[in-house]
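stuck on this fold:
=====
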Amino acid sequence: VDAPDHLRLVSDLRHDRLAGLVFAVNPFALMRTPVITRPGVPRIAIMDAPSPPVAAAALDEAGFIAKALDFFSVRRRTRVAVLSVPGLEGGFRKRLEGALAERWLETRPWWWHTLDHASAVGARALVHLLMHPGQDVRPDALFITDDNLVEPATAGLLAAGVRVPEDVAVVAHCNFPWPTAAATPAHRLGYDAREVLLRCLEWIDAQRAGTPVEQRILLPARFADERVE
């Protein structure tokens, strides 16, 4: 709380220089500081649920899952491998497993791998192992749920000699407008930072104007060709 940026932020709040605050993550560590406690300033954070007095701009996780799996289903892909990160091992995994079952899509424990960002390079060998010609049964769909894994994972597809999309369909998470590099084609699905910020600013403007607002807004997942420019 003694950091120069924090002190400057508190000063700006005390002198009414700010129309509102947008937090990139849940500001739980600031809950007892003037950044949160000073009245009269609309606050919204990119998080799943509101934490009064901070509203929530929630990423539509259910829509993200549904769009990816429907993409596979329409293309008659039924054997789904998943590459994920530790932060998605709780509720996200349960929802994804349920959505797979609802669509009669198959996954197997050894087709589901979790890597943290520091070891993302390992995705190359994992995908090569999943897809190499010596495997008796190979996935025909790959869902990459974090954009940090996209480049090494697609390099693994290339190393295994599989064709995309002929042999395997790939849906990869993206933080638009900047997709990470990929060694093969991949259908990008995710959230546009510009849209997220715009929705937060619109919420702040409405709050300041006295318009009734929800304390949770839902931000849709979109494929690249669905984005609103």
